[in-house]
Amino acid sequence: MEWTQKHLLGLEDYSAAEITCVLDVADDFRPLVARNDAPRDDLSGKAVINLFFEPSTRTRTSFELAERRLGATVIHFDVAVSSTSKGETLVDTARNIEAMGGIDIAVMRHGASGAPQLLARSISASIVNAGDGQREHPTQGLLDLLTIRQHRGRIAGLHVAIVGDIAHSRVARSNLYGLLKLGAEVTFVGPTTLVPGAFRKLGAQVAHNLDDVLPHVDVINMLRIQTERLEEQPFPSIREYSRLFGLDAQRLQRAKPDVLVLHPGPINRGVEITPDVADGCRSVILDQVTNGVAVRMAVLSLVAQARKSL
Ligand code: CP
Predict the structure, then answer these.
(1) Per residue in 258-271, pLDDT tens?
(2) 59, 112, 190, 211: least surrounded by Cβ within 10 Å?
(3) Ligand 1 center to residue 56 CA distance, Å?
(4) How sure is the predictor about 141, in pLDDT bands with cuts at 50, 70 and 90?
(5) Under a CB-based contact definition with an 8 Å cutoff, are residues 224 and 268 in contact?
(6) How does the average pLDDT of the chain come out, rounded?
(7) How far is the CA of 310 from the centre of ligand 1 (A)?
(8) Are 145 and 96 in a shared domain?
(9) Within a domain: 1
């Protein structure tokens, strides 16, 4: 298919064909991730700025690797020593950076839901959303899809449980949009305070008993509690949360023998997942991280292609 999307703001905006196209291109890039070859020229002569207003290990590092492997000039915006601390707005900051000339793509993570859309309306660079507030984390959704497809050969017809703090999770929303578009079934699982029934309106099934759901699913995607976004503790204690919704080896025995265990990271070991499960034979958590580089290479190269025809 001909790629025409200038931005990647969220999977809600992408069709099934577009999502499949990114996954196919990422599949082609995957063998390159482990090799330290000379850079490709997909982004040669292009400048990419990484604007991270929230902490990140996986997303930021994998975007940088992807940008360098595609031959881009990479610029980091260091929030801690920037003039945002003096009251400059996001749009003013971005317009000033753009006025320095030659920014083609801005990769942005921000704590405010909708910040990438605001930037896309304000500057002429392509915007790639690296996570905005509680709204979307589209490249995480794509790398989760790629990992599932790598191990199962398909997405359609699979049943995926996403477990934990759904209410505050941009990862859950991007996964939901992508999985439903590609024909999977999705069940959100967690306490009522973190998994409100309103998610049914988006097409998810909602459940509050993990043990009942486990035997029926092909994939379990465990999420951490987003403590930085909580106004009050949504359950009596971490210990009780772990007992009811944590994945340990004993609970995993209730699942199908070939179930896949995913986690977007960062992991809180011993809270939502025990170390033996996180590092065990059903876990594909490090495959997700590797696929993150391939997916980000695919997104950047497709967005750069689309810019040529604008
Ligand atoms: N999964 C994810 O977004 O991790 P980081 O916050 O480390 O980027």
Answers:
(1) 999 999 999 999 99
(2) 211
(3) 5
(4) very high
(5) yes
(6) 94
(7) 31
(8) no
(9) no
